[in-house]
Every structure is written in structure tokens, then in C-alpha cells.
Recover the amino acids of this structure.
């Protein structure tokens, strides 16, 4: 990976196979006894780090955490930065679309140009969360 922190995601040479492998590794760590639907997520950060997460469910079903939540938590816990590329996988190891709430998390931490592997190939966050609400909207106070 050649680009320096802050560069546009398009400037990075993304190793999608590596990201998928890191996401698949997470499937074994997932705690999904209620849904039996493990999810793994891996994200490339603009400084070259890779952050990962798995879903963590709860007997109080509604408070379960998605894999992307864990990944974003690791992003901040290990120094912050911006997500440039994200790969989420389901049990079969293939690309899984992040849920709506998680797309919002990815938007906040990667922005419109962040790349996402989807069942239809690589798309941007702008593609998968059009007309997003984001930090800029908070500037409109009146
Ligand atoms: N899940 C994720 O971890 N990420 C998503 O983007 C979609 C859904 C989890 C939540 C729950 O533990 C299980 O998948 C079934 O919905």
C-alpha cells in the first residue's frame, strides 16, 4: 500500500483477498448463538492498519452488536484514522452487504469514497448509502 494517510481511497492498491481472509478469520470469533448467523468484517485504514470485527449477540436480542460495530471500535481504540476499504462476510465467506445502521457507521468513518466489497463487486459508500445524513448536515442548525 503506497498512499499516505488522508489520501483518497482510489489511491490505494487494495488487497481484497487479504481483507476477505481477515474477515473470514473473524467468523470463528463471532458470538451468534441466537441467529446462527456469524459475520466478520475487515477494514483497511488509511495508514495501512487492518481493523477487524465480529458480531456479538445478546440474550436481550435487540442489543446485539454487528461485526462492523466491533471493527469501528477497533479503529478508534487503536489510533483512529479513516477507513479506505471494507469487506464484510457471512458464514459462506462471501461478501455480505452491511445493514443500514452499519452503512451509517461506515459513512462516518470512511466517507463517500470508502470502497466496499459487495455481492456485485466493489462499490463506494456513495453508491450504497445515497443521500446520506452525515457530519456536514449538523452544520445546518437553522
Ligand atoms: N449482522 C452484522 O453483524 N452485520 C450486518 O451488517 C448485518 C447483520 C449480524 C447481526 C446479527 O448478529 C446477525 O448478523 C443476524 O442479523
Amino acid at each position: 500500500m503506497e498512499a499516505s494517510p488522508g489520501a483518497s481511497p482510489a489511491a490505494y492498491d487494495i488487497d481484497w483477498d487479504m481483507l476477505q481472509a481477515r474477515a473470514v478469520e473473524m467468523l470463528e470469533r463471532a458470538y451468534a448463538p441466537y441467529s446462527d448467523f456469524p459475520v466478520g468484517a475487515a477494514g483497511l485504514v488509511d495508514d495501512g492498519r487492518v481493523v477487524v470485527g465480529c458480531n456479538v449477540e445478546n440474550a436481550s436480542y435487540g442489543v446485539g452488536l454487528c461485526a462492523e460495530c466491533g471493527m469501528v471500535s477497533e479503529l478508534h481504540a487503536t489510533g483512529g484514522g479513516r477507513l479506505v476499504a471494507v469487506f464484510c462476510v457471512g458464514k459462506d465467506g462471501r461478501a455480505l452487504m452491511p445493514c443500514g445502521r452499519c452503512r451509517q457507521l461506515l459513512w462516518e468513518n470512511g466517507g463517500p469514497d470508502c470502497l466496499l466489497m459487495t455481492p456485485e463487486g466493489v462499490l463506494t459508500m456513495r453508491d450504497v448509502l445515497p443521500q446520506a445524513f452525515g457530519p456536514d448536515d449538523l452544520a445546518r442548525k437553522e
